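Handout for the seminar on molecular recognition.
Each group receives one record of this type.
Step one: identify the two inputs.
Step two: read the structure output and locate the region that could contact magnesium ion.
Step three: write two sentences on what you found, then compare them with the reference statements printed after the record.
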Amino acid sequence: MSETPLRIGILYDEWHVDRAAADAEAKAEAEASNGTAPKRKRRREKADREEIHDALVKRGHSCRYLCVDGRARTLKALAGADVDLVFNLTESYAGDDTKDVHLAAYLELLGLPYTGSGPSGLHLAQDKAVAKRLFAFHGIKTPHFATVYQGRLQWADDLQFPVIVKPKREDGSIGIEFNAVVGSIKELMERIDALHADLDSPVLIEEYIEGREIYAAVLGNDPSTALPLVELDLAGVPEGSPRIAGTEVKWERGTEAYQKTKLSVPASIPEELSEAIQATAVSACRALEVRDYARVDLRLRDDGTFYVLEVNPNPWLHTTAEFSMAAKSAGRDHGALIQDIVDLALARYRGTVLQP
Ligand SMILES: Nc1ncnc2c1ncn2[C@@H]1O[C@H](COP(=O)(O)OP(=O)(O)O)[C@@H](O)[C@H]1O
Ligand SMILES: [Mg+2]
């Protein structure tokens, strides 16, 4: 626990929608594009901020919520926030997932100390193709890939089917449904077309890695430690669907895919292999300059080879989330984990640790 109680602002994002204006805009867009306008993205509400609030209050801090909702007045209010530290839970701005980078940059400009990754870490991790190039430079295995945008090929490895088609810059499995895994050129072209239409986003095509779904939670800075691995058991996805943590598994509560997939701390990975995965996860975080806490998503083949898919800076900290489960398995309860993250951020501003 840090020595002094702090005034902490828990910063989160909500997307304010002026209903009448949104309806009018949607109508105009639909008319202008003959009904083919890209769909806007929405995220579900999460209760992580209340849990973090309670954990911090229990430890003697005073907490208030700070919210940015896409309107300039909420940015202005943030500029005047009188707090010692911002616990940064933002993931998007005005419904745009790529703008978490800008919010961190804004906190930098305001000189407000905040938890988690800075703009560079958020940017490098968000662009999956950039992240994969950095992994390759550091000798971190990641699936072969290609990127395409509006008919232009940006990069292509020599790929083997099956491949998975996903947006280059999204998270939360947006744009990744079971039909993201394709085995033919026809399906591949259809998927690329659908993603361009839905999200107007560059597309990442990756070799599909058949195997186990493993998450490595990394905590700390110089040194950072990987907590015990967590596995998402995907054996329960419906017959005939690929074993991926797509939209159905992550968000569609009513479905078999959601209900039958469970997180656990796997006992069946040999210690040496676990350690190799953990060391790779730490290297992946360092390669992308993320800070304080991050979750690395990997796939583990039956032959013991493993591949880093992506690094998630500032991952979800709900008590049921992968990160909290990993911390618990390492003997850190949720409150201790939240305090660790506060302490890691404070150390940065007190100049005791040099970081990106
Ligand atoms: N190359 C791949 N091979 C196998 N499964 C993959 C691959 N890429 C993505 N997936 C599956 O899709 C999920 C989401 O992909 P990911 O790249 O982590 O995107 P997101 O940022 O949306 O979480 C992964 O957790 C995994 O189950
Ligand atoms: Mg992921």
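Reference statements: The CA atoms of residues 299 and 305 lie 9 Å apart. The mean pLDDT is 92.
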